[in-house]
Specification:
- Two copies of one chain form a homodimer.
- With 319 residues, chain A is mainly alpha-helical.
- Helices cover 68% and strands 0% of the residues of chain A.
- The first copy, chain A, has nine helices and no strands.
- The first copy, chain A, has helices at residues 3-53, 59-73, 91-102, 115-157, 162-192, 198-209, 228-259, 262-265, 289-305.
- The longest helix of chain A has 51 residues, at 3-53.
- The first copy, chain A, starts with a helix and ends in a 14-residue tail after the last helix.
- At the A-B interface, helix 1, helix 2, helix 3, helix 4 and helix 6 of A face helix 1, helix 2, helix 3, helix 4 and helix 6 of B.
């Protein structure tokens, strides 16, 4: 089969697998969550019935009341406890919201109510999201040497060959990130947030650092939270550092995949800087002739695999 | 100033500007949303008082009731209207949830209730998020020729030089994406979803396609929605295509920035494939000698600017 045919077959396979994966997820979520949901519904129905029985409220009045309470709750305003409590839009809370916008985490525990707020959110994110990516990229570039290149050099000096060294380094980095940005914060959240279990904390960290941000768990939302401002700023710093480390991990994984030929196999773009290096001085070790030859063979193979339908933008003259 | 100093100055500037931007956002959001929130709170307080006055419910009973209603609502279960209505975990709804997990949009209008569901969400996203990025990348690679390279070639054949051609092409692509993936869907949503204005629809499209996914607006959540399943699947397809186009737009912008020297100026990694092309056949036009020279000068400048602290991973020998 020619490379173009193989490339389309691979894409078709990807898309089919993607939908199968969604369907599989749907079946599992449905079978896990449906019984729990039904139980909650039954409980809530019983609660409503008992509330109506023990008071002289009409069902219609209660419906109307609950409907308005829920609609206000959608914007973070609750009638529950004291509605004159701390605002969702004090300075640190608003900064927390701005932070979840530009990092694309978007918990949505608070959301703009007014049309002006919605328009400003759009404009703010339009500038803020790319700018945050820029800042994260710039920070990760500076972390590449101390966290990727230096340890890799050390592993090689300890006698490991480059490919196993890259794999060992990636695993070590993964363990470090999981411990410092998932396990430790989850333990802290399970102490600070009264109602969160360790699993809840871990789930919050994962859902946040993947930028999914479901918003079913959001820190510093307890009405009687001590030092709420300091706590919110700490969470913001945690989110920023965590996203930085996730990006570093992703880049390291991408580069390791380049090294192991995975990106070539999946016909993905290789990591940036990948092909610029041939003329540069190696920093750790001198290249052996046979290594250079094997690399060239690999590159030729990669060029052979690239389908004809993917000419590069940069092959157009640059003036 | 040497390039290393300039590089750190730029990073410090970025980080400072980032925090200023967050603070600015906080001030604006706070000043826009606080009065609206206070009005909503007053309305809700009045509603609660009037409800308590016209019924024989005690304030404490109501607090307890509302607190449980709100806690159930956090997981998508409402006592409002008919709590025996359609499940949040029927097959298409669960698929919709799975889709918002793997695309990192994460509205959170429904969220797993059980610990098993939370653990499964983590595992599911761990595989699903990178795989979705892979599928999106693979699709975008196939769209590069018909939507980027072919139109660019056409613009150049019409007499435009490469840089203006790239800028004109980017603007045209932007207009196309805004019309097809923001304006048109917003108009459709404002018709299909009874309570959404055009702005609400546009805001939903923007918040979704940036993967922020606040979840204050989620389609197909009306209890009496006709053809709910078909509607949810259509929204899923819209999200997938929209994210693909956003990614294409981002990649085109990155490549245009390469061409205009913006990535070099900001010391960011250049787009993949950027430096591999010198030996390839140009697809549209033959390169002029002076163009090639100017490109080489630019490349040399870019290498000069790269700080010494950023040696590449690939400069380590590849065996």
């Amino acid at each position: 089969m020619d490379s173009l045919g193989r490339s389309w077959l691979l894409l078709t396979g990807f898309v089919l697998f993607y939908f199968t994966y969604l369907l599989f997820g749907a079946l599992v979520f449905s079978s896990i969550e449906r019984p729990v949901e039904e139980e909650l519904r039954r409980d809530l129905d019983a609660l409503k019935r008992s509330f109506l029985n023990h008071s002289c409220v009409s069902a219609a009045d209660l419906e109307l009341f609950v409907s308005q309470v829920l609609s206000a709750n959608r914007y973070g305003v609750t009638v529950h406890r004291n509605s004159s409590g701390p605002s969702n839009w004090d300075l640190t809370s608003a900064m927390f919201f701005a932070n979840t916008l530009v990092t694309t985490v978007g918990y949505g525990q608070t959301a703009p109510l007014s049309d002006t707020g919605k328009i400003f959110s759009i404009v703010y994110a339009l500038i803020g999201v790319p700018f945050t990516m820029l800042v994260l990229t710039a920070c990760v570039q500076r972390l590449m040497y101390p966290l990727v290149l230096a340890p890799l050099g050390l592993l090689q000096r300890l006698g490991l060959k480059p490919r196993p060294a890259a794999a060992v380094h990636f695993l070590l980095l993964l363990v470090l990130v999981v411990l410092c940005f998932f396990v430790a914060p989850a333990a802290i959240f399970s102490v600070v947030e009264g109602k969160w279990s360790f699993l809840d904390g871990f789930y919050f960290c994962f859902i946040s650092l993947c930028t999914i941000g479901l918003g079913d768990f959001v820190p510093a939302m307890q009405p009687e939270q001590n030092l709420k401002e300091v706590y919110q700023i700490t969470v913001m710093v945690y989110l920023f550092l965590g996203l930085m480390m996730m990006y570093l991990l992703l880049r390291t994984f991408h580069k390791m995949s380049d090294l192991h030929g995975l990106t070539t196999f999946l016909q993905l773009p290789r990591c940036e800087e990948s092909d610029l290096e041939d003329d540069r001085e190696p920093i750790m070790e001198n290249r052996q002739g046979d290594q250079k030859r094997s690399q060239h063979t690999q590159q030729a193979a990669s060029e052979h695999l690239e389908p004809a339908s993917q000419p590069s933008y940069n092959s157009i003259s640059t003036r």
